[in-house]
Amino acid sequence: MKVEIFSDVVCPWCYIGHTRFARAAERFRAKGGTIEVTMRPFQLDPSAPEKAEPIIPAMERKFGPNARQMIDRVVGVAEADGLEMDYASALSANTLEAHRLIEVATRQGLGKEMAERLFRAYFAEGRDVADREVLAELAAEVGVQDTGEGAEAVREQIDRARALGISGVPLFLFEGKYAVSGAQPEDTFAAAIDEVAERTGQTPIVQLAASLDNRADGCDDGICAV
Fold it and tell me: What is the 3-state secondary structure (H, E, C) of 13-38?
């Protein structure tokens, strides 16, 4: 099953939703299912300056007195999911370069890992994810060789998101046509995965009795194995 996750590195609900979906995906894999995840870019604020600034004042300018309440709520939800969010040290940043790095990582089979490292760097470590030196350090940690490419692909995918009518993230697109939006509970993601698997003929075979594991070739004990 192919799943595209549209998200932004500085979106707290994307981090939470990504984590919940990953857990649901592991449940599907444990049943014998296959899920191929591709990270897709989305910028909540394309006009954000490249020079970082503390996120709390930036949010207070945008959301006024509701900003603190919003922060407290999302931090509480994140903690319940085992995620650390330190808004006191978080920095507002333009995410275009971070998305480009995820695109490079995706081409090297490390897109999911790169996205997760960026989420953690931004929300838990107060790192500036618009800073090229920081991005180079994070890429090295994940094992990504930054080729400097990917900017055009990122812009194309952002345009595609708009064409698909995506106006908020996270959004999870299954097989190019089934969508789940928002940081849904893990069980909701698990149910969605199962439903898409059923609709597309990808439901894993459930072994009710006996196993072929570690069985020699030939016929024995009611099973013929090759």
Answer: HHHHHHHHHHHHHHHHHHCCCCCEEE
